Amino acid sequence: MTKPSCRAGWIGCALLVVLSGHAIAALDSSWFTVDGGGGFFSAGPGFELSGTIGQPDAGQPMIGSGFELTGGFWPGVAPPCIGDFDGNAQVDLGDLAILLANFGTTSGAGPEDGDTDGDGDVDLADLAVLLSSFGTVCS
Q1: What is the pLDDT of residues 10-42, one digit of tens each?
Q2: Which residues contact 71 (CB under 8 A, 6 or more apart)?
């Protein structure tokens, strides 16, 4: 290898190192943090979302593709009273009546209809969940 071609090789390597830094810098690896705060869990047809979001990142809701996500501090929320369909803070005969009135619904049922397991119907599985918490007084 002659001196000019050796020098050209070193210059080529130096250019490659310098330019590769610019190529890598073009990539963006955004950072997001979870800063503590309230807990959150949500589920729907085909998705589940859970996380903990704290006040430092609070801002306007993030909206896109039919979804909305709001960040910020969430104070403690009491756990749901599973089986309390009428919202009177207890699982009682009124709730059983709601479930039985909708028993056999095969699709489109919600918690207010007696769907305790979130599968969109009111069936024996929902009745079993209600009966297991029957008599519960919720806070």
Answers
A1: 787 776 666 665 555 555 555 555 555 555 566
A2: 53, 57, 58, 59, 62
